[in-house]
Amino acid sequence: MAQVVRPPESVPWAGRLEIARLAFPILYGEVVGVITPLVIVAIMSRVDEEALYLRSLYVPLALLFIALQMGLDISNQVAAALSRGRGRPQDVLPTAASMVVVGGAVWGAVALAVIAGAPWIASLLEVPPGSTADFVSFVRWICCANLLWLPVSLCTSSLRGYGHVRSAAGVVLLGAGVEIATAAVLGFGTGLGMYALPIAMAAGGVAALSYAVLALVRTEVWRSREALNWRPEAVTHLASVGGPITISFVVIAASNFGLMWVVAPFGPDVVSGFSAAAALETLILVPSTAIGSATAITMNRLRGAGRPDLVMSAMKAGLGLAWLTYSVLALAVWLPRAPLASLIAGAPDVAAQTELFLGIVGLTYGCMGITVTAIVVIEQIGGGFLALLLNIPYFLGTVAVGALFARAVGVQGLYWTLALLNATGVLTAPLLASRFVRRRFSGGPR
Fold first, then answer.
1. Where is the signal peptide (predicted)?
2. What burial letters (b/e) apply to 49-66, b meaning 16+ CB within 10 Å?
3. Whole-number Å distance between alpha carbons of 388 and 325
4. Which of 160, 258, 309, 324 has a CA between 20 and 30 Å from the CA of residue 5?
């Protein structure tokens, strides 16, 4: 029997509470996703210096696979949320299966290209001759292990989109726990070095997929499933939602390379301090993506239920929750910036650079969190190209404009550029997102 969808009513606070209930399990799942690579790096730094070096070189390729994964994940999440709103759990698995076909073809093609081009990639990244063979072998094995995470991603997004967010978070927690434990046991106990990483990734993928299937079996999505026939709407979702999201992540990855290029001439302390601040920023922005996803899931359910008149109220509730969250988070980062910098950066010279960054940019995390929430929402309700148009000027502007000011006045010029763009974003992104929602859902509040 189809579940009755209880949409957030027109009372904003009630909407915030419902969105918060969705957001918290998404939040701790995403926090685990951010922390896991940091823990793996910490393990590898104690196991094998070459393993840490080769894994660092793999990061650009990892960002490419993350971009593909996010495009598939969010496309399927949107489809599952629409099915929940329509009261059609039987549509969830056939749509996900269709996305496996398309996603598997794309993911497999990219993986094969990376596997075949691994020697050229080693040359491009200027891997020392003595490490080239190890790098090529490492990349090829980890590409194979990566393939296991495609079905995991589609299972978790089906659970999350249909409302089983705790089960989806449990999949992430189990997969991360097994990956970390395997990396530690094999890294310290077997002498495998860098080869412990693809084995750990594969072990985590198998564990996560097994748990995800068991979680699905316990839901109405499994009990009501229909034949896994081809669903053409899967391609529509991938084109309208997944494509722009994937491109946005590629733009973000490119900007990360650009920012490292900007700070590189200022020396290792600045580079390390900036990297520490960037890692902290990634963690700080996790609540914004969780709130944005929870808001979009709610809005997509309302769309599926034929209640466009409540969609705008849901968006206002989500943005209101983001305002409340980031008014606290920004102060929590900016006020204790000196001890916080020492905690995350370690060495005094590096910590001083991290503190400089947080002193200039820290308060504007409040603006950035709200902006990211708005962009995540419109990405997941069919406004992917608008989100892309908002992302490109910001991320490429930080590199182009930031480089000019950094060369003119020092690295502070880059930091003030970031702060200014963060403040500008909060004046434009929520406004444009609201206009997009009003135009798309004419039955909503004006």
1. none
2. ebbbbbbebbeebebbbb
3. 25
4. 324
Question: Which residue from 3, 426, 28, 35 is spatially nearest to 20, judged by alpha carbons?
Answer: 28
Question: What tokens appear for 25 in the block?
Answer: 């399990």
| The model's pTM | 0.76
Band of residue 446 on the pLDDT scale cut at 50, 70, 90: very low
For every residue of 127-192, DSSP letters joined together read --HHHHHHHHHHHHHHHHHHTTHHHHHHHHHHHHHHT-HHHHHHHHHHHHHHHHHHHHHHHHHT--
All structural domains of the chain with their residue ranges? 16-230, 240-439
- The CB density around residue 101, as the number of other CB atoms within 10 Å, is 13
Give the position of tokens 């995540």: 376
Cα three-residue angle 183-145-36, rounded to 5 degrees: 40
pLDDT digits 0-9 by tens, 193-210: 778 888 999 999 999 999
- Per-residue pLDDT of 203-233, as tens digits, reads 999 999 999 999 999 998 888 877 778 888 8
Min mean pLDDT across 14-28, 107-121, 210-224 is at: 14-28
Residues 6+ apart with CB under 8 A from 338: 355
- What distance in Å separates the CA atoms of residue 92 and residue 77, rounded to the nearest whole number? 9
> Structure tokens of 278?
């960037």
Question: In angstroms, rounded to a whole number, what is the distance separating the alpha carbons of residues 439 and 120?
Answer: 48
Alpha-carbon dihedral 382, 388, 391, 397, rounded to 10 degrees = -160
Other CB atoms within 10 A of residue 297 CB:
30
